[in-house]
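pinning this so it doesn't scroll away 📌
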Amino acid sequence: MGKISMTEGREDEARRHLFRPYPSNGLCARLGDKWTVQVVWHLSLANGFRLRFSALKSEIDGITQRMLTLTLRGLERDGLVVRHYFPDIPPRVEYELTDMGIGMLRALEGINFWIRDNMSRVEESRRAYDASAR
């Protein structure tokens, strides 16, 4: 039996930990959009996992009122966020992570650990790519 090449070794390792996404259901697309993780992240840092709409809008740099509304509606539809309406004058709306939304934080934490462990290598790859004549 001959030596296993580095590529073959990585392929074997990748096969043992093969990512098998759950059939298409829209959740991966939701998590991959521009705003969802930022909204969830801000709610996760808030006292009681709850923030007013206006606080979310001011804390998330660059998000428009429309995109925040659409993102929150999608999260609410999926059961990750609950909307609380208060008929004060002026009316007040708060959004809160549900138990399922809080449970999703563990998955996001895993991605965050991967980013922390690999960010310097990603930045190095970006520099090398940008420096190459393409």
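📌 and the second one:
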Amino acid sequence: MSPHNLKNASTERGGYALKRGYGNASTAQGGYSKNRNMKKTGMILLALYLIIDGLLGLGVNFGPLVMLLYVIAIVAGVLLLLGALKSSG
């Protein structure tokens, strides 16, 4: 079966054809990109947390700004958890 026939067959049944350069079926439905942004933001915050925590372990002193580390950790955890819960159900 040629790719053109496969595309026509899947769209006739209401499905989404997987074509190179057009993403996948979940992005075509619009539900995946929002969860991906939440997870991406959560991963960036997690990376920041790990970098700052590593610097603290090496003896770098941030003074009272160390409280920011706890806020970053909580926000990263919440975003990752929400992203995981939304993508699973």
